[in-house]
Design goal:
The structure is a homodimer. By secondary structure, the first copy, chain A, is α/β, with parallel strands linked by helices. Chain A is built from 17 helices and 18 strands. In chain A, the strands form four sheets. Chain A has a six-stranded mixed β-sheet with strand order 8-10-9-11-12-13, sandwiched between helices. Chain A has a five-stranded parallel β-sheet with strand order 2-1-5-6-7, with helices on both faces. Chain A has a five-stranded parallel β-sheet with strand order 15-14-16-17-18, sandwiched between helices. In chain A, helix 16 links the parallel strand 17 and strand 18. The two termini of chain A are about 25 Å apart. The model of chain A has no long low-confidence stretch (mean pLDDT about 95). At the A-B interface, helix 5, helix 8, helix 11 and helix 16 of A face helix 6, helix 9, helix 12 and helix 17 of B.
């Protein structure tokens, strides 16, 4: 059976049993139930609980086998030693999938936990696919399924899948992504991966037409060789962004006690990343930045950056930051320098690359001419432009009150126009600026401007370092993917 | 003459001539004048301008020699070719110091600019010390002197000096530092350093009793050997945090066109950092984080970190991040693990190091017991604890309305108490969390909480990576400084 059909009951359940719900609202069971109700699960929900008859307005059943209608998926949060019995009940009931939230299995490092987990694996082979144990479940906006906790996640779907061995990272990424316009096809926290592991889930995402970009957090793969093969096959078609954690000594130890994973050697992973066109990232911040860049940047995104910003020291820092992540900042030829020299005054600016516009911000018409000149340079693939708008937002760069907004709007609309005219990708650096408590209104406006950029397909980043890293990741991917094809 | 006396007229001028002011409010001259007035310069201000009789309510003089009283410092912003004549006038008037804001000297890369700059150097030798050219001047809250632009800088002094070859970075750091409680003795943007260079200014800071921590941004030192010697002498007594820019190929090129600097080789700098107990940082963010850590962390800050946070994946990431910056995360012995096991439930937590408290936040009394247990572990020098308070602030971790504030206040006050009781430094990671526009109130509260931590001497950082890097920098410094002494 293909993965799409096999995992359909797990991602798109029409009926869901939540096993292990109690009246105690602080417990996982009722918190998950509440998250499902808040989020608006579209199918039927059957709470399973030995005590009581109703929880959160829903009728409860003493056992999953007592549920009147068919059940596609069981969410299980009973204590570890009771999980095998619940799974047996699920098998008897014909339930096709289970997400086991309960922890206390192999990750405890104890014999008993390992034995219990092996038992789960054996039960799975008899006809029920398991996500977990020791996980936070699945978020799939199209079916209304959500993680624990995840009642507040976006209802809209998007092209990004996140396969995460960590529940915390799954939740955190889904939340952090909200403000940056990243939307998901599926987020899966698969924990110890006793049955469905990173390889199975990647195979599913390879087939899933909803998913265009795959992001992963992995502590230790369960099927290393199969996983590497799958990455090799998929990466040239869909970007696979991988945060491999636990590669350091201390990290490896922590991974072992988190999901019973063996960290693996950095060199083995490096080789995989190079051969397979997978994109390695280090941390949630880089993961989110890179996914954001993939959402908006085209295959023509290259390593030769044209950098535009205000302030000489900031240009030096920008050049250093680009170089460190492997972006070129090629010096402009005389023709380009001369054109820039006609726009910018000679003193306090630089018409080489990076372009130092001399001030934090120049008027929109000058900014447009600078961007156009840089976009027309043959040596430039991609443009990174800093717009230190906090100077206007926080009132340190004074403009007449009405003019301020027109000035900003002119600047905000420029990059998308230049991109469309010259066909070169542009990313924007939109720094936070002074962050005292009283400055929070400027931060609110900054977020609005960020959203405006996002709506025009211009990815904004808070620092140049982060922008450069994301651009470098995307450029490296497209170069390797083209070779691999 | 000692540096303190020699540079007194520059840092503490009783009378200041601003040469090159016009009525045009967008020009540097009048913007600088306005900044001085806004900031509240304590001495006399004499605008010097060939045209008109009054600017911004101040009487103007056609030439600095026409000023009736004595003048300590001249701020010069006339076009480059006129600067030598103005300096001659200053010499004639007996002015002791000048800050030359004007650019268009050696940084242009042209013969004419280099010649002009040499002329300035020669004039300086005849009895006037020069800051610049191509700079933004000096910020010294004690005398009311400020940078261009800098009318909104804090009026209070503090123990940090920032010596910056870049005016943009000088302004940016002074602004960014505000929200983090970093206050300055002096900030100097010294630009091309035709007379006073990084070595002179460092020598001054070595003698300046107001200055306890020196931060520097350097593109290319003018007197490399003397500078290295000074660092070696000073660093064991006062931390010297150095951001050396322009070390990459692209960065070196940009530095050359910014301040006519030669970048230098990374290996030479690395050797200096190792021998001299200077603290190398890479970028403004790390510079600010490291200075913040030095402000609050004692000499006992060591490399063996006890890490506390909620969520297994987050613990793995924390361990990786610590390892990458050279912090140890030693596993706890059985005694400590057992004590932690009595506080935390067995499932979904970890009592090794990092400690995974299993949830984003635990009640204050449990948090205190966890911190106390970690602080009492012999293998721990320094504690890094994540407090993901945005879960409460943004309402995703629900507490009864009144209890929420009491819960948070209990958590906020715990670290300082444990630090005082056990004598071990504690830093806090206070993540921003979801950053949609609507979430800006949570950000406002987060900033208030950050300020509360600062007031208790507990340095807060937005990410674990940044906290770990700052702690590692401080720990490395104290270890090397002890050896060097």
């Amino acid at each position: 059976m293909d993965m799409l059909s096999e995992l359909r009951p797990i991602f798109y359940p029409r009926a869901l049993a939540v096993v292990g719900v109690s009246r105690d609202e602080t417990k996982f069971g009722s918190r998950f139930l509440q998250a499902l109700l808040d989020f608006g699960f579209k199918g039927k929900i059957y709470p399973v609980s030995p005590a009581g008859t109703e929880i959160l307005g829903l009728r409860t059943y003493p056992n999953v086998r007592d549920v009147p209608g068919p059940v596609d998926l069981a969410a299980i949060m009973v204590p570890a030693h009771l999980v095998p019995a619940v799974l047996e009940d699920c098998l008897a009931k014909g339930v096709k999938g289970a997400e086991v939230f309960t922890s206390g299995f192999a990750e405890t490092g104890e014999e008993r936990g390992r034995d219990l987990e092996r038992e789960l694996t054996l039960i799975a082979r008899r006809g029920i696919r398991i996500v977990g144990p020791n996980c936070f479940g699945i978020y799939c906006p199209a079916s209304g399924l959500t993680l624990l906790p995840g009642g507040d996640f976006p209802r809209e779907s998007g092209p990004v899948a996140f396969i995460s061995q960590s529940g915390g990272h799954a939740v955190e990424f889904a939340r952090e992504a909200r403000g940056r316009g990243i939307r998901f096809s599926k987020v899966i926290s698969y924990g110890n991966g006793c049955d469905l592991n990173e390889a199975d889930l990647l195979e599913y995402m390879a087939q899933d037409s909803e998913t265009k970009i795959v992001a992963m957090y992995i502590e230790g793969p369960r099927e290393g060789r199969r996983f590497a093969q799958l990455v090799r096959g998929l990466a040239p078609r869909k970007p696979v962004v991988i945060w491999k954690a636990g590669l350091t000594r201390a990290g490896g130890r922590a991974a072992h006690s988190h999901t019973a994973s063996l960290g693996g050697e950095e060199a083995v992973w490096d080789a995989l990343f190079k051969q397979a066109a997978a994109v390695p990232v280090c941390g949630l911040e880089e993961l989110a930045d890179t996914v954001l860049a993939f959402l908006h940047l085209p295959a023509s995104t290259g390593r030769r950056a044209g950098v535009v910003g205000g302030g000489g020291g900031i240009s030096v820092a920008a050049a250093d930051a680009c170089d460190r992540v492997g972006l070129d900042v090629p010096p402009f030829d005389d023709g380009v320098q001369q054109k820039l020299g006609e726009i910018l005054p000679a003193a306090g600016t630089s018409v080489r690359n990076p372009v130092d516009i001399g001030r934090p911000l120049v008027p929109p018409q000058d900014f447009e001419r600078v961007l156009e000149t840089v976009a027309s340079a043959d040596c430039v693939d991609t443009i990174i432009a800093t717009q230190a708008m906090f100077h206007v937002l926080a009132g340190t760069f004074k403009l007449p009150p009405r003019e301020g907004e027109r000035f900003l709007q002119g600047l905000i609309r420029t990059p998308a126009r230049v991109r469309d005219r010259y066909g070169k990708p542009i990313v924007i650096v939109l720094p936070v600026g002074p962050d005292e408590v009283e400055m929070v209104e400027a931060e609110e406006r900054r977020r609005e401007i960020r959203d405006q950029y996002l709506s025009m397909g211009i990815p904004p980043f808070p620092t140049l370092e982060r922008a450069a890293r994301a651009v470098a990741n995307v450029a490296t991917y497209f170069a390797r993917a083209a070779q691999a094809r």
